[in-house]
Structures are given as structure tokens and as C-alpha cells.
Amino acid sequence: MSVMLETATEEFKKNYPDPLDDRHPHRTHPDSKLGNILKVIFNNDDFMTKLVVSYVLARDNPELSIQGCRLLLACLPGLDSKVVFSEPEDFIPRLYQWAGPESTNEALQGYATGLLAAALGNPENASKYRIYNTTMIPFALSRLRELRARVAEENGGEAQNQKLTGPTDFSELNGVSNKSPSISIREFEVPTTIAEENEQENLKNLDDSNSKWDIIQPFSIGTQQMYPLSLATYQRFILQYLKSCGEYQDKMTTQIQGTSSARDQVHREELSPYETHYIDDFSRLCPYPGLTPSRMLDFLLNKDYYETVLTILHASVAQKSYGSERRFFCPPPCVYLSTAMNQRSKEYIAYIGVDSDYTEWQQLDFSNGKGYSAAKKIYISDSDARKVFNLNTKVLNKCGREIGLFPSQRISVISKPPKNKKWMKSQHRKYIASGTNVAIFHRPRSQRLRTRYLNVEEDAFQASSTKWSVFTIYLFDDERGIQEAGNSAVRDGFLKYGSVVILVDSVTGIALPRMRIRKVDKKQVILDATCSEEPVSQLHTCAFQMIGKEKAYLSLSDEKIIQHEAQIIGENRHEISDGAAWTIISAEKAEYRFFEATGQVDTPISPCPVVESLDVNGHGESTHVELHGRDFKPNLKIWFGSTPVETTFRSEENLSCKVPSVTKMKNEQTNWIFTNKTTGDIELPISLVRDDGVIYSSGLTYSYKSMERHGTV
């Protein structure tokens, strides 16, 4: 089978040599031998397991392992690397063992190195097995020089006299695929290839690029001798492995700068031309070892896949407990954890608490697999004298590695809901202002019923007993009329009873109809005009009267949100059901976004820098940007899109940098990725990157105004 696949691959590359075509051979050339073989392999689920377990990992039979690795390398383009290298658990460690200095079988060593390159092409594997590279990378570099010397000796010194003056031409190296492996055990007849012109016509008619052929593309230039394993192919496997390791770039940078340790010291003059060209390329592009512009661009285009997002929802005020009572926070603080690269949130351990005594912290439960957990037993005791505090969430992985400590927004402590009937400037923090965030919940009178929270799920409002949403509440501006929509019809100020308000979900932007907020006293809505000057305060019970329907109120029935029809019991009073009485409280959201772009780092992710605003000063080539926020450190650098810039650290609240020229930014990549199609402006996301390659998204963008519209070049 190995011979058949290698022959089909060689034939395919001779007929269709385009290395930039990333489509699977079966899609571009459905009648090609290679395409059909790979299709059959991909459709055989049992073969992969049989190959890996019974052949590649065969005990006490090196020759069987060699042939298994050879076949696996030939099959890589048809397989999913995540699945191939996920089981058994000792598969990748065994590859490190075979490829490393302890191995005495050169053929097995070479094939294992090629498979390692494929396995580490998956960022999850690269991060998980990073520690193995500590010994593997120095050995790989040493092995590369040794192999090159042997090639030079075999060629009578000819190879040693060759000097590379430009980027490495990989057509000299011969190679194979660096992604995932798999094969098929049943025999089949390979169909005859049709005429080349017909296949080229099929290629023109196809535009489907959703395939795995991009896996073999980096290896598809030139020919290769897979068996017996040639020295050139072995060298290429090593380069593929080194390219997949962020640590390789780290070592190369330190070697250039002369700062590497004695253990890792490799002088530049000892490196082969292949290595020095890798060094020159990475040192030019990569101010941080391992984080290249292309890697940053990949992250920016696939944030949903790479980025970890931790969100803490909580009320802005909390009632203090007295004596033996425990007034649990309501709504309960809720932590959402969206993990990077499809990792499951339940693989993490998290704790939340109000002080530094971890014994009092509550463990969050992510076992539901939905990525969120509510802390229902959090309270603040009367022995705590603080007027303001933060909740802290500590996150670790299942191995005990600390991810970080993430604080909430500030929370104010109150003894009980305020009863001020007139607005007092000194008490403004106890009132609710237009444009701020709130949570709405219903606390039933019966102890047997659970508190329900106004929540938005799948673009629909519901009354949930487990989750709650943060809403932005606005004062509707009656004077500008109901025809005006959006922000043009809202105004600033503090909410007062009788005001018309709009509730907008802070995530989806879905809003409830305009409603009038009313004061509630023992199931009775007070409509008296004297309430119009009374401010809406924290933890007040209120009702929401539908505009245009005097007796209709926002209410709940189990999990459904409905309109309840009240009974008129007087000129200025309505009687409502228990489900139409809501409690309102200010709420906040703390959000942290990060990605370990060069693999798992040795220090915690926190403190996470938070960018709150951006100021632009100057004009033309002297334009500078100032970022304002918190938890800035000297080891942070500002990136405009995929371009790093020199950054000045002024304080933990201020960073500044010079804006890169629009000419530098308007290249082929940014022109189609970051250009606003409507305005023509280049709009670059602003990121902060730590010196170990951790990326923190700021949520802000910098816009270069269209040169055509503004008459500039």
C-alpha cells in the first residue's frame, strides 16, 4: 500500500504541480488515482485504529513500526490530524521517543520526526507536549547539521560548497505531508486516470476548497524518496518539525542575539544554510519568539476558534448579611467560559469568592458542558467593613496549572434597599441611570417557588431559573416622538417612576416594546402622579406597563414571558398578579479575552490588560495613539492588525505608540481583510501582546480614513 500511495502521489505531483491549490485531489481531479485512494482511506473508520495500534505502535518489532509510519505518512492528506493523533494517549510521546536521541534506528527516527511535524501542526498538541521539545529541539538542530555533513561527504564536498543567497528552495529538500495520518486495509482497484485536458476542465469547474489537501501542499514541491528513507527527506522532516515549534523560533532568536545558555548555545556559523534562512525569516518578522505576523493574522481571522473568553456577570450592589443570616447575592454571579480551540469548559476548574481566603470560595460547576456556572452561595458578612469590593474568579486546568485570577467590576455594599422618595445627589449610586446595565428578576412570595430571571435565549425572552441577561435600560424621549428609533429617541438622566423606558439585551441587541416603569406596593401598582419625582432605586419592586395598553403588564408564566391584564381597583391603582412584580438592580459585566499564540506559557495569563478608551493625537506621519485602561505592564506591545509597533509604557493606565503609515498597512493582505467595503477605510483591530506571545484583544479598532475620500496618498 505504501508503494501504491507513494507512486500515485508522485504521479499526481508531476501532472498537477501547482503547490498553491489547496483542494483535495478527489475534488479537483475526481478521476485521479491519488484522489480516489485517499477517498477510500478517508471513508474507512476502522483502518486508522488498526494501523496505529497494531502496526505503528507494534511492540518489539521495529520493522513493523517503520512500515506503519511510512504508510501513515503517505496517507496524511486524507485524514483529520485531530482524530489521528488523539488516541492512544501514548502515541505522540512514543513518536518523541523514536525521534529523539535515545533512538538507534535511523529510519524509524526519520519517519517519527515526520509524524511529529504533522501532530504538532495541531495547536492543541503543540501546547500539550511543549515540554518534550526542551530536549528534542537541540537534538533536531544537531541532527540536521550531521545529516548535511553526510550529504556533503557523499557528494564529494559539492553540497558543502553550495551557498544559498535567497530564501530556501524546498524543491531541493524533497518532502511529504505534515498533517494528520490514516490508511485503509482492504484491497481495491485503482481506477484509470482520464486524459489531462479533461481533468483540467474539471478543475476549472470546481471552486470547492473545503478540504484537507492543504495538508500536503507545503510538501508537494519536488520529488522525494520515502523508502529507503533518504538523507534529504529526513532533513526535510526535521525542518517541518522545527517549523511547527514556537520554541524553535525562540532558540533561533536567542542564538542570533548571543544570549542563549551554554546548554543551548549554537553559533550562527555552525548552522546550515537551511537553518540560517529560517532564522533570518523569523527574526525579521517576529519581534516575539514564535508569534509571526502570519500567526497573528490567522488568529484575527479565526478568533472564535482560538480565543478564550471569560465573562463575569454580577450585580453592582450587594446587601450585607447580619448575624447568622446569609443574604446571598441576587442575581447570583454567573461566569461564562468560552474556551479556545474547541476545548471543553468542563476541563477547567474555577473558584469564585469575595476575599483572599480561598477556603471560603465557591467552586464553579461547568459539568453541564454549556460553558457557564452560577455562584448561588456568595454573600458578604457583617464582619467585612468594605464599602466597595470585587469578586475574584480563579481558573485552573485539570492538571492544576493556574490560568489566572480575574476580578469583577466594583460592587457597592448596601444594608437594605433605599427608600428615598426624593432624589439626593449624595445617594446617586443607589439610583439607576439611563444607559446603564440592569438585571430584572422575579422573587416569588412562596418559598417553594424559585426565583426567575429575565433572560434572552435564542433571540427570545424567557423567565429562567438558572441564567440571567444583562440589559441596558434607556429613558425614552417623549418630546421627540415615537417615530424616532434607536438612540435618537432616548435621553440621559435617572429613572423615575412613570418614565417610559426601553430594555435592550446587551448581547443580542433585542429589545422589549416601550414600557412605563411603575411603583409597586403589595401587589398594587401606584399610578399617582406624585410618584413621578421618586427615583427608581436598587432592589426596588416595580412593574412594567405596556404603552398603549393601560391594563397590560410584563409578566411571567413559568418560563414564558407574557402580558398580564391587571384589575382596576381605583383611579390611581391597579392590582397585578405576583408574576408581574419585578425587582430591578444595576448589573455589570467583566470580560477577558486572550490566546496563548505560541503555546502554553509558564506564567498565569492574569493580570489581563483592559483597554477602556483610545485617543488619537497629531496628524500625518506624527500621529500617535494613547490607550487608556488598567493593568498595563512594560512587557506589552501594541499591534495594529498583524503589525507590531514600538510601544511606550507610561503607567499601568496608559500606553502609547506611533501609528504606522497607511502605506505600510495597505498591503495585499490588509487590503482585502481589514478594508471596510462600504467606506473603503482600512480598519485594523488593536491588540496587546505580552512578551511570551499571549494575545489580549482590546475590542477597539483604528480606522485609516479612505485616501480617496480625503484626498491623501
Quick recap:
This protein is an alpha+beta fold and 713 residues long.
Could you walk me through the main structural features you see in this protein, from its secondary elements to its overall organization?
Keywords: DNA-binding, Nucleus, Transcription, Transcription regulation. Residues 154-176 are annotated as: Disordered. Belongs to the Su(H) family. GO terms for molecular function: DNA-binding transcription activator activity, RNA polymerase II-specific; RNA polymerase II cis-regulatory region sequence-specific DNA binding. InterPro entries: Beta-trefoil_DNA-bd_dom, BTD_sf, CLS_fam, Ig-like_fold, Ig_E-set, p53-like_TF_DNA-bd_sf, RBP-J/Cbf11/Cbf12_DNA-bd, RBP-J/Cbf11_DNA-bd_sf. The structure is a single chain. The chain has 713 residues and is an alpha+beta fold. The chain has 4 domains: 2-192 and 209-244, no CATH class; 304-413, Immunoglobulin-like; 416-588, Trefoil (Acidic Fibroblast Growth Factor, subunit A); 609-710, Immunoglobulin-like. It has 20 helices and 32 strands. The protein has a 6-stranded antiparallel β-barrel with strand order 11-14-16-17-19-24. Helix 5 packs parallel to helix 8 (106-119). The longest helix is centred in the N-terminal third of the chain and has 22 residues, at 133-154. Mean pLDDT is 75; it is low at 158-222, 247-275, 277-288, 483-487 and 706-713.
